[in-house]
Design a protein that fits this description.
With about 475 residues, the protein is of the alpha/beta class. The protein is about 55% helix and about 10% strand. The chain has a five-stranded parallel β-sheet with strand order 5-6-7-4-8, sandwiched between helices. Strands 1-2-3 form a three-stranded mixed β-sheet. Strand 6, helix 10 and strand 7 form a beta-alpha-beta unit. The radius of gyration is 26 Å and the shape is globular.
Length: about 475
């Protein structure tokens, strides 16, 4: 059967690079929803093909970083199909005016979205996802407090480690926008109760001041909404929405780092709310003075009110937390077991509560009394499991120790060979063993940009295949992480 003449003519008019890119797109279309394909792949133009290296043109730096963070595995699969295992992809970042065939993408964002810490969601992170979901949409501008009613001041255990933050939070909850604690910033490491306190404030205000509009939002959600507003030309609606709230709670403000346009808009919203006497509450993993990548004018405003820190809970507080958790669950455990667990787990509240849940689950499954022996076995299993979770700090310390340099060297601007090579190895392991996006890895390594991180990973990957000594070094270092 002969092919349709019009189809043959169309194929003949396509250049070699266009034909290769069309083959890539076949794989892409089969793998993602059409809305995602339309948003992130239709605006791409194939530019040139030299050997097995295809160059594509994308409309912005943000566009390039989004592809690398979210579709790098899919692009690898597409290249394998269209060119072969040796196929490579290069980017040409040019914001152009487009034409009738290739419509431009009207997006002026130059920074990448930073996902929230922890593992990524399994579903695709598509900024258009909310148009396909009739249920609650995480990125819409429909009013929803997003508060968890389980967080309250009554079930927050106060101790020396958190007394200032808890007291300030309760004062703000009783008189939102009236105290001198505006803005209120609470900072501390993961699992110490930042989110609990700020959500407790929001719930208290909702219950005692029903006329006030309270909005809790993560910095990632705020950024996603801002990007949607830019893309859809609805920036005024976005700012109007936020300027109408009475209490704005923004979680993990450190993730606004490097997002200049998002910061500009947040600055104006902050000023507007503060001038009207509205309450602003923020959380961060570090104090304002250590927040790199944020504008000075924002940082100065963060210091207008009160900054309170959360420390790891002391022994007495840990015991009280365990007792409160057991009381809530209706479970009785001897004091010697409670003290053993409190002594053994000293890092954060979230981990402590997780141990109690595991302990109750073990007792239920094995039909045993909760005693010290069961606690020891439960904790032993948890410690083993946690040892498999490798942090970027662990990676940097291990690599620095192996090469007999310092962690500061890995973060430095030094271009000496004896520093660059270990740094690239550390970046390679950070990409392999953590779920951090490339941009966040760059922040940990002295604020290096996205392309530098990609280059480091690619360099070590290639050296492993071509240099026996590098292969042996990487293999030996991997044994330290097992």
């Amino acid at each position: 059967m002969s092919q349709h003449p019009l189809k043959n003519t169309a194929m003949a008019e396509m250049s070699e690079v266009e034909m290769v890119w069309e083959r890539c797109l076949r794989v892409v279309k089969e793998s993602i929803p059409y809305a995602s394909y339309e948003t992130w792949f239709e605006p791409i133009r194939p530019v040139k093909l030299i050997g097995k290296v295809i160059t594509i043109q994308v409309p912005s730096q943000f566009f390039f970083e989004w592809l690398e963070d979210n579709y790098v595995n899919l692009l690898r699969k597409a290249l394998d199909y269209a060119i072969g295992k040796d196929g490579m992809l290069e980017y040409s970042i040019i914001v152009d005016t487009g034409n009738e065939r290739h419509k431009p993408l009207t997006m002026n964002v130059t920074k990448a979205i930073t996902p929230a810490p922890g593992k990524r969601d399994n579903f695709e992170r598509d900024p258009r996802r909310h148009t396909q979901q009739p249920a609650k949409d995480l990125d819409s501008l429909q009013l929803d407090t997003y508060l968890n009613p389980n967080y309250s001041f009554d079930n927050f255990i106060e101790g020396d480690c958190n007394r200032l933050a808890r007291s300030a939070g309760f004062a703000v909850a009783q008189r939102p926008g009236v105290t001198s604690f505006n803005p209120l910033m609470i900072y501390g490491d993961v699992g110490l109760g930042k989110t609990h306190i700020v959500q407790a404030i929001g719930n208290y205000i909702n219950n005692h001041f029903p006329e006030k509009v309270v909005l809790y939002v993560s910095s990632e959600k705020f950024t996603n909404q801002f990007i949607n507003a830019l893309k859809n030309n609805t920036l005024s609606s976005f700012t109007d929405f936020y300027m109408k709230v009475d209490v704005l709670v923004i979680d993990d403000v450190q993730f606004l780092s490097g997002k200049e346009k998002t910061q500009d808009t947040f600055f104006h919203i902050f000023n507007h709310l503060h001038q009207l006497g509205k309450q602003i509450i923020m959380t961060s993993d570090r104090p304002p003075r250590e927040l790199d990548g944020l504008q000075d004018r924002l940082l100065s405003r963060f210091k207008w009110g009160l900054t309170a820190d959360l420390q790891a809970p002391d022994l007495e507080t840990r015991i009280a937390i365990i007792q409160k958790k057991l009381q809530h669950e209706g479970v009785f455990i001897d004091n010697d077991v409670i003290e053993y667990v409190a002594y053994s787990v000293s890092t954060n509240v979230r981990e402590l509560e997780g141990v109690i849940i595991s302990l109750m689950a073990q007792a239920s499954l094995t039909r045993k009394e909760i005693d010290v022996e069961l606690a020891k076995n439960t904790l032993r299993n948890i410690v083993i499991e946690q040892s498999r979770e490798i942090s970027i700090d662990t990676i940097m310390e291990t690599v620095a120790d192996y090469f007999k340099i310092s962690v500061a060297d890995l973060k430095s601007k030094s271009r000496k060979k004896e520093i660059v090579y270990p740094r690239q190895v550390a970046v390679y392991f950070a990409k392999e063993y953590t779920d951090l996006p490339l941009k966040s890895i760059g922040v940990h390594f002295g604020g290096r940009d996205h392309s530098t991180i990609i280059h480091s990973v690619q360099s070590i990957t290639e050296l492993i295949e071509t240099d026996r000594s590098v292969e042996e070094t990487v293999h030996k270092l991997k044994s330290y992480f097992r």
